[in-house]
Design brief:
115 residues; mainly beta; 6 strands; elongated
Length: 115
Amino acid sequence: MSQGIPDSSVGEAVCSALRSQVGKLGLTIGDEPVWAEAAFEETTDPFSQEISVIAYWRGGARFGKATFFPDGRIFAEYQVLLPHPEKAGSYVDSVQIWGRPQQLRGEAVLAEYAT
């Protein structure tokens, strides 16, 4: 059973939450990700047979993906690829958010520059 493309208000909340995680670090990725630029596909969980909708952002400077599970949970990740403002030798690889639209939590994924 298909669940279709998520409501734009939910999509906008996901995009805003991703940008907010970047903002917490004192960085910006402008207006990315843009909900209207997402491409969608459905995927079936091999164990539960539940169908989730996945939104992708590709083709720009950054890649992102958001999974909308049938029970209303969301997991999203979006590339940042900017130097960490306070940790020398590190950069912010991406930000992640998870939860339900009303209470999305998140964190940054940091990486160290190769030496």
